[in-house]
Design goal:
The chain has 2 helices and 8 strands. It is an alpha+beta fold. The strands form 2 sheets. A 4-stranded antiparallel sheet has the order 1-2-3-4. Strand 3 and strand 4 form a beta hairpin. The radius of gyration is 32 Å and the shape is elongated. It starts with 20 loop residues before the first helix and ends with a helix.
């Protein structure tokens, strides 16, 4: 049995499939959007990497910051040293009155929730928030501020009444 083949195209011309003109423009648009998305993701990752390494240089690991000031807790002529640390998402605040490490006090801090929150720096500042003439401790974490009032030789969180008064004073 013999197998034969026959050319089906009588004219011998080859056919080329042409796409509609709109499909070519749509392909370019999709390619452009995918390239823009890839660039956005890569630039975002590079900025995040740079920010983490810059914070490593500034605050170390675990994230630690400190401030010194005369807050009225000093027995000697040395300023009080306040240290804020982010240890595995738990904010830890230490007060060394007059710089004396044997009198160290620990203050309760918030627990941080979310991805990479163990890399969030804890920033400290001293300002008289309630107008009593003594500097109060302000702890800034992300976009939140926690105020510790300077009362009775130490720092403490405000009561609900004090908190309402502070909010009213800061709002005006």
């Amino acid at each position: 049995m013999a197998v034969t083949s026959k050319e089906l195209n009588d004219h011998g011309a080859t056919r080329t499939a042409r796409l509609p003109r709109n499909v070519g423009r749509l392909a370019y648009l999709i390619t452009f959007l995918l390239a823009a998305l890839a660039i956005y993701v890569l630039v975002g990752a590079a900025v995040r990497w740079g920010q983490v390494h810059l914070d490593d240089l500034r605050y170390g690991r675990p994230r630690t910051s400190h401030i010194e000031g005369f807050v009225g807790h000093e027995a000697s002529g040395s300023p009080t040293r306040l240290i804020g640390m982010n240890i595995a998402r738990q904010v830890v605040l230490l007060e060394l009155p007059g710089g004396d490490a044997s009198q160290v006090r620990s203050l309760p801090g918030p627990y941080l929730f979310g991805a990479d929150e163990d890399l969030t720096p804890v920033l400290l500042s001293l300002h008289d928030i309630d107008g009593d003439g003594q500097d109060d401790l302000i702890v800034s974490v992300r976009n939140e501020r926690i105020i510790y009032l300077n009362r009775d030789g130490g720092f403490r969180l405000p009561t609900s009444e004090e908190q309402q008064r502070i909010v009213q004073e800061l709002g005006t």
